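Working notes for the structural subgroup meeting. M.R. asked for a predicted model of this chain before we commit to crystallization trials. I am recording the input and output together here so anyone reviewing the notebook later can reproduce the run.

Input as submitted:
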Amino acid sequence: QELVRQGEALKRTEQMVDKMDQDLKTSQRHINSIKSVWGGLVNYFKAKPPESKPEQNGAPDYYANSRLKEAMMSSKEQESKYQESHPNLRKLDNSDNDFSKADLISSVQRDDSYPKNQQLRAYHQKIDTNLDEMSSGLSRLKNLALGLQTEIEEQDDMLDRLTRKVETLDINIKNTDKRVRQL
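Returned structure, recorded in token form:
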């Protein structure tokens, strides 16, 4: 969630840099008008730059990648199930060692690959169940890790793009400042 929030902040920053660049171009037009009559005439006949669209209630247009969204949704769905079944998170229950006859009968009917001793069979099945839960948890972690990797790569690209824009904007601001001082 923090990574998604940071992505939204990056997107807003990029929008602000784009707006600053647009404002700088407008100021450049005004400087050209002030500098000479010819610059004013050129600006008059030159097409005006398109207006940038205003933000709608500050809502960012950033969306986390689909892989991360799916992993987060899946993880949230399984979280309550996981907490109920996790040995350290569930309440200690002394009846955990006592298996009902129905459980034993159903376990005998399900699989004959377990030992014939009913208690040993029940423990083997419990171990298998725990391994299945571990596998499910590791699968969730893998999906989250892959989603995070993709999101980080996308944000890294966004940072590179933003760095280039800021460097260009910095050069343009220095040049504009120099022109204003010359007036």
